[in-house]
Every structure is written in C-alpha cells, then in structure tokens.
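Interim report to the steering committee. The following record documents the input for Alpha/beta hydrolase (333 residues).
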Amino acid sequence: MKPIRLALGGVALLLACATAAAAPAQTVLGKDFTFPNAIVGLPSKLSDFKDLQINHFSTNDGVKLAYWEAGTGKPLIFIPGWSANGAQYLNVMYLLSKRYHVYVLDPRNQGLSQHVDYGNRISRFATDLKEFGDHLGIKKADYVGWSMGASVLWSYIDLYGTKGIGKVAFIDEPPSIYSHADWTEKERLEAGAITSDAERMIDSFTSPKAPNKMVVDSQAFQRATLMDSPYYQNSESFAQAFVKNDIEALKRVMFDHVTNDWRDIISKRINVPTAIFTGVYSDSLAAQRWIHSAIPNSVLHVYAANEQGDHFLAFKNPLKFTAELDAFLAKPK
C-alpha cells in the first residue's frame, strides 16, 4: 500500500487526454519534460522515450481508464499501488520495453483515469483488470502488482483464477493491512497488519495529520519522501508535473482495501510461477516471508539498505529490479 503525497500520483491533471486515441506520451500530455538527473542508459527527456504511448478503454460500467504502453513482444502488465500511476513507471517501462510489450494500467480515480464515485472496491478494480486484458485481446500475460496492485491481483485470482496468467510478481504488499483484535502477534506479523483502526488510518493517510504508531506503524511515509535515488527523483518529478491527487477520489477505495485479508487466496489459489519483492525497510517483511512460504516454488527478493530496500524499491533501484524481474520472467517454467 502506497502512502499519499499531495503532489504525487493520482488523478489526471489532463483528464481529457485520457479519451484520446493512442498517441506518443508527449502528444497526449501536451509538452515535453526534462528529467532533473541525466542518467546514462535512460531518457534525459520525455521525448527521448519515443515508443511510450498513452491510450484508454472504457469498462462495462462506463469508466474511461488510461494505460501507458511501450515495446513489443510478450505482454507484461503492471498494476500500480494506491494513489500511484503510470508516470512513476517511466524508468521501469523504458528498461523492460526492450524485451516486452509493457503496459501500466491507471486504476479508476488514479493517474490519467476518470474520477467516479462508484465501483470503488478491490473486486471492481480486479474486474477492470480483466476487462483491460480483454480489450487488448490478450489471452495470457505476465503480471506485476505493486502495493495495492498486488491486492488487485489477488482479487483477480479469486474471481478468475490463473488461466490468463503466465507468471506473477508481487511487490511489498501485506496480505492484510488491518489487524483483528483477537489475532496473536504471530498472526499479525504473518498478515503484515500495520493498524487496528481502519478509519483513523485512512484519516492519517489522507490528511496532514501525522499518525502515531498506535494508529499505524509504518515507515512508508518517511521512505516515500526520502529522495535518495536519482531514478526516483526523475520518475517522481515527472509524475508531479503531469498528475495531481484528488484526495476524496482516492479515499473511496481505501476502506475496502485496508480491511481485506488475502491469505486464503495466497495460500490456496496461486499455482503459477511467483516472485516476491521486498526490502529491509518494508513494513511487512515478515509477511513477505510468509507469502514466500505459502506459495510453492516461489522466489523471494529482499533488497538490502544499500539497494533501496523499501516500499518504492522498483522506482528507486530500477536497474536491479528490472534485471531480476526479467531473469524471473525469462526462466523456463
């Protein structure tokens, strides 16, 4: 789960662009963008990523969802976390588009997708993901869910099984954010729960209030604002330039997200090759180890402190992350 930052991720600044036909990202967004850090092997400007496009489709309940795409080859679909968007995946997409047809779907009320006051449940987000695959005409793809995006994938597997999934990766999402009062400490740790008060947690995540650890025990706030990676500085500055958060829109799915417990799906329904990515600064490292133990033959990557091992590891250390993800996806089943 990704903490809110008022200027980053979320709702489209240029929502009308989401209704346009597929076009180069620079055309859809209306201008070029120069990244603050020039990094060898990555774009210096948005226009350097000539293959990057933005498109949209409409769900069966009438919501226009935007998606970012680049590359050719085997389809690889990313589902962002809460309040996140495809702009933040720019480095990840650029690196992986050399080998895959990479997609990032902006969930409803996030990124360049439409704001609506209905369908704000993880199960509906999973249906949106299923309809996205149908829209693309993809019968099978590899999927990567980060933060709440992993929960969307767990719901997708609950509803539709794994027939349409080749391989799957989850990035640092606990099976249950909410801790029940009668759980033992072992259960809480294995579930990864960080709060026992969903309403107060949501309030702390969507207002300037600083939560104490009795409300929510999380390092993610501090790690999100720690601009300790030039890759992360680039992708976050790009997201900030083109998207803004609508707090009320983002809050709509949060209670449903916080109160789900996915341990039954994780332990009983996942029968495809699985990779789990986490780090030493994760709020739910014990839970990531539990997920690894619950899914047969899964692989676990735990990033060290000097490897940007926090909730944002894919964006802070995209070279390592994309190399390890590529190795996992390329390995024969």
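The chain has one domain: 11-330. The committee is asked to note this result when reviewing the revised timeline.
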